[in-house]
Amino acid sequence: MNRDGPSDAFHTAILDRISDGVVALDSDLRLRYLNDRAATLLDVDGEAPLGSDALDLLPEETAAELAPLLERAVETGTEQSKEWVGLDGSWLVRLYPGDEGMTVVVTETTDRRHHEATLGRLHEATRQMLLAETAERVAEVASRAAVEILGFPINAVHYYDEEAGALVPVTQSPACSDLLGEPPELDRGLAWESYQSGEVGVYQDVRAEDAVFDTGTPFRSELLVPLGEHGVFIVAARGVDQFTDTDVALAKLLGANMTVALDQVTSERQLAQQRDNLELLTRMMSHDIRNDLQVVGAVAEMLRDHADGAQQEYVEKIRRNTAAAVELTTSAQELVEAMLRTETDPSPVGLRETLGAQVDRVAETQTTATVTVDGEIPDVTVLADEMLESVFRNVLKNAVQHNHEADPTVTVSAETDASTVRVRVADNGPGVPDEQKECIFGRGERGMSSEGTGIGLYLVQTLVDQYGGRVWVEDNDPTGAVFVIELPRE
After folding, report:
1. Model pTM?
2. What CATH number is attached to the domain comprising 411?
3. What DSSP letter does each residue of 44-61 carry, written as one string?
4. What pLDDT is attached to residue 282?
5. Number of domains comprising the chain
């Protein structure tokens, strides 16, 4: 070892022990000091004489890399750095010029680059797991990543099966299959304990553990990572003391990513099941139940002509409640359809045609109220879809059903500006108290003495939100309520 410069033996000893390579050069770039680490990293003779030209000491390829950096540091007098990758690894060189020469610090970055590459590949495996549609696919991706990225050749994934009451094998690496054949279901043992406790288990010699599942296991070391409520990820090795702290940290990271992916798969599976159930329910309501109700309504209509006295009252009650039930099935079907839509792509819909048709329909069916249009409905298009008619129909019906005045009236008007259309549905009923003006659009909300279903206005709110519009209620003058529907223009 050559040393000049640091004459203090204490400081020299420190420089010799640090993990980075340190070289001191004079103002002519001649060697003043070289520690052992620098000699190793730069592949130079550790006994090179002091005063030697630094570039002459370096291997040709290394000298070619560093020469421009040294020149720039001398010319500018500022700190310079460079990282380069060779066949045997990668290095970061930092130059610190001073009044009496230059200090060169060399840091090996091979391990850091390997770590970054490992994390990058693990990130890609995580992306694949998050895109997986089944829990089995998550296990397959994780097992392969454990082998190819993390260097865990022996691994397996077990999921908890409620019917079996055990951790059931889902997938295992080829090396694990070669050693075990068909893996067992685990309802006891170290993996079961880890799953039950939710704690990572690190066993450097499983044969020394009382709770080992199989005392004749071919494995000596095991690393057990629970996957929440889903199961456990198992890594094993044939020798003792095979897992480092880094191995444990990487296994935990992979297990955490698996758990997130499995949570997502489970949630999507539950949502799919709920969707199927809702679709079945809406088919029943729109076909079987509604058809039966319509038959009951038709029979009630025929009986009304032959009933008298108290019987007439009973028949009318049957007819009225049957009509309300038919309306409920219609609203429920439309609400389910609105809620099941995962994507909404509003398209141009003619306001005059859609609103006008619903005004005419309600005016014909609701004979107890007068429904009119104030002025002319603008001939413009709004961004909505075919269910916009449900929005207008439910608001109009709501205005009629809540109005118990002797001469109930509903007045519809519309106004436009450059970006929006506002449809106003005004009635002369009791109005909506201030404390109910917002909650009236909530799911299942019904007004006082309401004859409605309690879902009509919630459907209105849901659809208008999907169109990117707004809906609210104001006070009418002198009495009543005004429902305002604001929709974006095309």
Report:
1. 0.46
2. 3.30.565.10
3. --TTPPTT-BHHHHS-HH
4. 66
5. 3
